[in-house]
């Protein structure tokens, strides 16, 4: 399995405040990797370091090449980052949001819209609805659909379960799994809901105060003493 | 007091410098130096409003016009002592400032800027309408004219008083309230700052200073108050001066005032383009370059230098 | 860097509030009735639309830049004026009016892009005041350059539509006015179509609304900002080229009053609303003509203050302009 994404000793900071102190992780092609940790552990910052929306140092390689340039360049290389707050363009319509997802793609988008319609059939009716008027769950789905329109190689998801009812969380993660299995999208998901994240992902990393405290296959981590106590609640 | 020792020494030296300066200057240059003081008071006023409470105003030329016309009219019709017209202008424009500040409470940001801009555009037209009383476009003049030395003395003394006054106001509770308002109105209110009072007060003080500057401005231009002297470009000039000075701090105002007072005249002798047009081109370029290099103005240099020193 | 939400999503589509709509409908009815009853009224109204549409065009340029960068470009009028001089020079060099017109629009686009890249980009991220002052500096600079090259003497450019006057019923309507309205509406519609239907236009809208999110989907916000300035410059050039015939002469102060009225129109409409800017401009144009004629106190001297007094009144009632939204800030 080739590594699609590699982080080696990555530091990141917000102005003078250091948030990551040398994080290293690997995501293999076709995998789903979860990043867990408490609030402020640096999970979101890790994703931001990848899409280069935060000041960072260290080595980040994507498909073997150094990942450089601003977020636009990173997106063009095939990385879709669904940020905290979903990055929905609330003032624009559902259709316009999807169209923006495909901004980096050329050519006819009919097939892409059809595929998205297959995963999110309800979107078709809501084409011209203002995106900001969708419910939280619907917006999360829209964010996924938008990311999928980009046909990315790597999908970065920042806390997709945030603010969603448990039933919706299950639904969202089901779709992510489908995208991974059927479309071959590699996923790096940051989550506070360790339980469901560990069920979805094959590998997981646990961050504490900007460093990798634990890592390994999900099955192992699920059994790990401190993980169970701190994040799984038993 | 001990901590401020170097600052006090600097101030004393500056006072000495300005007191002795006119003796070393030609009459023409004394007039020029006086104009720096005039702009200093205006820039000070704008800084109080925009730098300290965050209310943007492009209308200060209107207040200057009111102050200037007050001086001219009082002197022309009632032969009032010229120096007495200064506190009179101060009081009248303070009132006008409060009058403007009250409705301004409803506006914010760009809308406030444009509303004050509207003021700056409209006020100079009024003397044209009531031309029998105000002399119309030809303007109205004071009954006495003054020498450049007199002008230098009065304007710099007034500038010193204005600076002291502003410094005292901004030092205490009022200054803290102003700064709180600039940083976050919501936070300020929840800390007990009555927005309406302080914001209106800021407008009043700011306008009053501009009014005094306007009076001196009229005295500096042969005692003539004319509508086209107080156009919107004057307001923009003051804004440039305040931005170059650095908003939110008093230390740069001297340089900011010097920038707008002296640079246009100095650029007139620019060899590159020649005559009057060179003045605009050079001045315009300077404004742009200064803003690119010092976006927080001269006053912003001090924290920047401190940070550099801390790093080293 | 937590992205601060600039606006909360609105539960309804972006139509102006009902009282404003009612006001507009009432105004239209008033104008129609007045025009039917008085020839002068009708003439003034049509002429007012022509001047108003020019205000609206420049106002639109201001709104375009404001939406993208939260900055008021004080140099917009002077940039437009400089482009008119460029067109003038092109006609002196032998081009026909319309050849010069379209070439000038292309030059204006480049001018706008270059201005943004050279002068605005260095200060963009730092502080709004700094950018505004840079535009003030540009105002002064462009003024100086134009006066240097062409001097402040008055010049004459051929009128694009001639001096013919048509008569609809007994109402005289200048061909120039019709031409102005047509050209401006065409350019505004073209711009609207660009924003509504093209990918680039969508990218620009997204970049103006949520720059961080737009960058994540691959929108090159910096480059598009330059495009925005280019388009604004083109709109300004159209406004300038349509102002010149109305003023009969070309001189460096050409666009200064227009800029003032454009500011008023933009704020009247609400700075975030392109439609509002156009409507505001037209309303202002008609208002000025009618007030100048029927309210004797005003005459020509107080035209400018009256316009701004009206603006201030509107702002007191609706502080974000007729079509503007109250931006809710997260604390």
Short description:
The complex is a heterotrimer of chains A (234), B (312) and C (331). Chain A is of the alpha/beta class and 234 residues long.
Q: Explain this structure to me?
A:
The complex is a heterotrimer of chains A (234), B (312) and C (331). In chain A, 37% of the residues lie in helices and 29% in strands. Chain A is α/β, with parallel strands linked by helices. In chain A, the strands form 2 sheets. In chain A, strands 6-7-8-3-9-10 form a 6-stranded mixed β-sheet, with helices on both faces. In chain A, strands 2-1-4-5 form a 4-stranded antiparallel β-sheet, with helices on one face. Chain B is mainly α and 312 residues long. Chain B has a single domain, classed as ABC transporter involved in vitamin B12 uptake, BtuC, CATH 1.10.3470. The longest helix of chain B is centred in the N-terminal third of the chain and has 27 residues, at 27-53. Chain C is mostly helical. Chain C has one domain: ABC transporter involved in vitamin B12 uptake, BtuC, CATH 1.10.3470. Helix content of chain C is 71%, strand content 2%. The two termini of chain C are 15 Å apart.
CATH class of chain B: Mainly Alpha
Radius of gyration of chain C equals 20 Å
Distance between the termini of chain C: 15 Å
- Tell me the overall shape of chain C: globular
The helix/strand class of chain B is mainly alpha
CATH topology of chain B: ABC transporter involved in vitamin B12 uptake, BtuC
Terminal CA distance of chain B reads: 29 Å
Rounded to an integer in angstroms, the radius of gyration calculated over CA atoms of chain B is 19 Å
CATH architecture of chain B: Orthogonal Bundle
Largest sheet of chain B: 2 strands, antiparallel
Task: Note the main attributes of this structure.
heterotrimer; A: 234 residues; alpha/beta; 4-stranded antiparallel beta sheet; 9 helices; 10 strands; C: 331 residues; mainly alpha; ABC transporter involved in vitamin B12 uptake, BtuC; two-stranded antiparallel ribbon; 12 helices; 2% strand; globular; disordered N terminus
């Amino acid at each position: 399995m080739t590594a699609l994404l590699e982080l080696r000793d990555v530091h990141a900071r917000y102005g003078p405040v250091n948030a990551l102190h040398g994080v290293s992780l690997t995501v293999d092609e076709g995998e789903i990797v979860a990043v867990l940790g408490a609030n402020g552990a640096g999970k979101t910052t890790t994703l931001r370091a990848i899409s280069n929306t935060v000041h960072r140092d260290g080595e980040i390689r994507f498909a073997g090449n150094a990942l450089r340039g601003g977020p636009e360049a990173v997106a063009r290389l095939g990385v879709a980052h669904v940020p905290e707050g979903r990055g929905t363009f609330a003032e624009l319509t559902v259709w316009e949001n999807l169209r923006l997802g495909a901004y980096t793609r050329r050519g006819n988008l009919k097939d892409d819209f059809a595929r998205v319609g297959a995963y999110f059939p309800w979107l078709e009716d809501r084409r011209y609805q203002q995106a900001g008027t969708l419910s939280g769950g619907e917006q999360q789905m829209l964010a996924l659909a938008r990311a999928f329109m980009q046909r990315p190689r790597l999908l970065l998801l920042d806390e997709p379960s945030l603010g969603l009812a448990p039933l919706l969380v299950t639904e969202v993660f089901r779709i992510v799994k489908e995208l991974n299995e059927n479309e071959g999208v590699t996923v790096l998901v940051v989550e506070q809901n360790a339980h469901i994240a560990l069920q979805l992902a094959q590998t997981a990393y646990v961050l504490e105060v900007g460093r990798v405290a634990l890592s390994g296959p999900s099955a192992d981590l699920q059994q790990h003493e401190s993980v169970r106590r701190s994040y799984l609640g038993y | 007091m001990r901590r401020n020792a170097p600052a006090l020494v600097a101030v004393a030296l500056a006072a000495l410098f300005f007191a002795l300066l006119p003796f070393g200057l030609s009459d023409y240059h004394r007039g020029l130096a006086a104009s720096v003081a005039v702009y200093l008071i205006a820039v000070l006023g704008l800084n109080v409003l925009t730098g300290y409470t965050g209310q943007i105003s492009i209308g200060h030329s209107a207040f200057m016009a009111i102050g200037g016309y007050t001086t001219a009219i009082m002197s022309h019709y009632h032969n009032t002592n010229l120096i007495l017209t200064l506190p009179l202008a101060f009081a009248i424009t303070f009132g006008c400032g409060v009058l403007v500040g009250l409705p301004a409470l409803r506006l914010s940001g760009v809308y406030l800027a444009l509303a004050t801009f509207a003021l700056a555009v409209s006020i100079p037209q009024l003397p044209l309408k009531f031309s029998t009383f105000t002399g119309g476009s030809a303007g109205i003049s004071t009954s006495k004219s003054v020498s450049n030395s007199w002008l230098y003395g009065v304007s710099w003394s007034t500038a010193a008083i204005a600076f002291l006054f502003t410094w005292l106001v901004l030092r205490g509770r009022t200054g803290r309230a102003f700064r709180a308002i600039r940083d976050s109105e919501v936070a300020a209110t929840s800390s007990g700052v009555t927005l309406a009072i302080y914001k209106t007060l800021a407008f009043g003080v700011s306008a009053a200073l501009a009014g005094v500057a306007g009076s001196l401005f009229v005295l500096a231009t042969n005692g003539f108050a004319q509508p086209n002297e107080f156009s919107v470009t004057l307001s923009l000039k003051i804004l440039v001066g305040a931005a170059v000075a650095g908003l939110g701090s008093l230390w740069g105002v001297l340089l900011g005032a010097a920038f707008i007072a002296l640079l246009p005249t100095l650029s007139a002798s620019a060899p590159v383009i020649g005559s009057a047009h060179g003045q605009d081109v050079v001045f315009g370029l300077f404004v742009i370059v200064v803003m690119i290099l010092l976006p927080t103005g001269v006053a912003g240099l001090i924290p920047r230098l401190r940070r550099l020193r801390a790093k080293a | 860097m937590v992205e601060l939400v600039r606006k909360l999503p609105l539960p309804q589509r972006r139509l102006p509030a009902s009282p404003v709509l009612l006001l507009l409908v009432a105004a239209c009815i008033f104008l129609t009735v007045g025009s039917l009853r008085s020839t002068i009224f009708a003439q003034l109204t049509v002429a007012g639309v022509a001047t108003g549409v020019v205000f609206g065009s420049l106002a639109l340029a201001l709104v375009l830049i404001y939406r993208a960068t939260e900055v008021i470009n004080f140099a917009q009028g002077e940039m437009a004026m400089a482009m008119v001089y460029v067109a003038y020079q092109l006609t002196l060099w032998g081009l026909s009016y319309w050849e010069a017109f379209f070439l000038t629009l292309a030059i204006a686009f480049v001018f706008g892009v270059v201005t943004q890249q050279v002068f605005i980009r260095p200060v963009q991220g730092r502080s709004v005041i700094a950018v505004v002052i840079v535009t003030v500096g540009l105002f002064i600079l462009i003024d100086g350059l134009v006066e240097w090259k062409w001097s402040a003497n008055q010049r004459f450019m051929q009128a694009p539509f001639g001096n013919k006057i048509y008569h609809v019923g007994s109402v005289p309507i200048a061909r120039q006015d019709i031409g102005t309205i047509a050209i401006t509406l065409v350019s505004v519609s073209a711009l609207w179509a660009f924003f509504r239907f093209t990918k680039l236009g969508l990218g620009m809208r997204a970049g103006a609304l949520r720059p961080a999110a737009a960058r994540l989907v691959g929108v090159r916000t910096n480059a598009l900002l330059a495009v925005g300035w280019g388009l604004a410059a083109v709109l300004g050039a159209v406004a300038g080229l349509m102002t010149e015939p109305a003023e009969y002469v070309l001189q460096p102060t050409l666009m200064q009053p227009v800029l003032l009225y454009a500011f008023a129109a933009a704020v009247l409409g609400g700075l975030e609303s392109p439609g509002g800017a156009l409507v505001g401009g037209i309303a202002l144009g008609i208002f000025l003509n009618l007030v100048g004629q029927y309210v004797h106190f005003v005459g020509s001297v107080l035209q400018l203050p009256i316009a701004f007094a009206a603006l201030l009144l509107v702002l007191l009632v609706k502080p974000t302009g007729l079509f503007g939204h109250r931006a809710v800030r997260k604390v």
